[in-house]
Amino acid sequence: MAMVPAEGGPATGPTVLRILLGAQLRRLRESSGVTREGAGWEIRASESKISRMELGRVGFKERDVADLLTLYGVTVPEERDALLKLARDANSPGWWHRYTDVLPTWFQAYLGLEAAASLIRTYEVQFVPGLLQTRDYARAVVLLGHGRAAPGEIERRVELRMQRQHLLRRESPPQLWVVLDEAALRRPIGGPEVMRGQVEALIEATKSSHIRLQVIPFAAGGHAAAGGAFTILRFGDAELPDIVYIEQLTSALYLDKRDDLDYYAVAMERLCVEAEPPERTPEILHRILDDLYRE
């Protein structure tokens, strides 16, 4: 059984640790022939609680994990200790914990997954993706949805977005592959000065080897993702399936079923074909800058 050390570096957060531990508990349960109902009875919980644990969607009590390991016949001290340590670390708060006053619960899981991803592929039609936003552009976007909030709250929301971007500057950053609709670049979020700074920042971003940016021009007409923005997250650990993330106004969808993954993967591939190639992106951005935002 492959173990992932809990101190696995900046890419390992509590969300991913819960998923890894849940997957290992599921394998142990199945190999020992125990049903979810039987496992639930052992820890005084329901079958659905065991299902949520195995999917990594709830926290773990160390005592429950210990009881399940005993039920599943895990008696080797080293193996038990490693899994119990994983349970403790999976309950530790992520870096975003200090922003919970401005962070919806449905988005917290995404931050953990984003921080652990080895490849982030995203399509956006309305806005520049959060990982590439300048501070001024991020503030303008936040104000669109929280215009009545106090200035202090606005700045905390902006700072949260800036903190997310640290993952692109760490020693081993994920690959970020963005397909951006031209509309997002021509929509004057925050006004011409803010957009000028944002487009210039995108030009700079194209120079990074781990960032690939493509633009779908208006001339492309309709395309494969007419339904709206989405993100596909892929992880370096084989135990973690890809996840499709679709954000809504007051909630989000996390899709991990094979049919859904295949559908969105095909849509993303078609978007990349229909978009201008990455090597043309700086030219396109400079043209938009000259057309709309040049001083």
Number of strands: 6
Give the count of helical stretches: 12
Looking at the structure, what is the overall shape?
Answer: elongated
How would you write the strand order of the largest sheet? 3-2-1-4-5-6
Instruction: Summarize model confidence as the mean pLDDT.
Output: 89
Alpha-beta content class:
alpha/beta
Give the SSE order as H and E letters.
HHHHHHEHHEHHEEEEHH
Low-pLDDT ranges: 1-11
Beta-strand share of residues: 5-15%
- What share of residues is helical? 40-55%
Cα Rg: 22 Å
- The biggest beta sheet, please? 6 strands, mixed
- Our measurement of the CA-to-CA distance between the termini, rounded to an integer number of angstroms, reads 60 Å
Topology overview:
Elements: H1 14-31, H2 36-42, H3 47-54, H4 62-71, H5 77-90, H6 105-116, E1 117-124, H7 135-145, H8 151-164, E2 175-181, H9 182-186, H10 192-205, E3 211-216, E4 230-235, E5 243-247, E6 252-255, H11 258-274, H12 281-293
Parallel strand pairs: 1-2, 2-3
Antiparallel strand pairs: 1-4, 4-5, 5-6
Helix pairs in contact: 1-5, 2-3, 4-5, 7-8, 10-12
